[in-house]
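Backbones bend. Our protein:
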Amino acid sequence: MRILVANANTNAAITARCAEAARAAAAPGTEIVPATPRFGAAAISTRAENIVAGHALLELLAEHAGQVQAVVLAVSHDTALEGARQLMPCPVLGMTEAACLVACTTGARFGLVTLGSAETYRELVARHGLSGRLSGLEGVAMTPQQAVADPAAAKAMLRGAIGRLVEGGADSVILGGAALAGMAAELSAEDPQGPPVPLLDGIACGVKLAEALAGLGLPRPRAGSMAPPQGRVTSGLSGPLARLLAGG
């Protein structure tokens, strides 16, 4: 099985971190294929950048269509998730979506901590239909680039935020953000008593759910909003993306 781990920003160091976390979670025999888009923001932090990243991400996925058995979107905004599902001939999981779904199996409510402002995640959880399961959000004052450059400082700030979320009623805590990939396992291993609640890594959750969905072998829908596009006329897009939109 080959799983594409597709970053939506252009920071290759974050792609590498996500690939490392994905390989740690993958079953024996699963190949992780990391990929970074050719254009877009170095780190998505605005709504406008997220829109640009959606185009970049769909072009990136189109290049791998038919060559992988599943896709994990290594972007915590779950950028272009619905469009990617409609276009790709394989299961597609968003990393935050996957973590939220797993969190629902670990308890009644979950919290989420991320880098910078957390409010857009409230909207994202709502789009996934899980607002009633969200106990709280925490944003730590650090950029993705700073977290990759100084993981020790990032972990110290995350521990404080996790503690506040647990006090607020979280039965598990999601570490939201591609730059935090792998830190849930690291924080758990570094705590002598173990974390107070399960810490969930969106990349790890995405890989395990992607393996399961690929194993189910479900057919693509032929009707409904997720049916593959047919005969769409476009201009200026990459060849692989234009072919997918045309139904090729």
Notes: The chain has a mean pLDDT of 95. Residues 47-64 form the longest helix (18 residues). The chain has ten helices and eight strands. The beta strands are 2-7, 31-35, 70-74, 92-94, 110-115, 134-140, 172-176, 199-201.
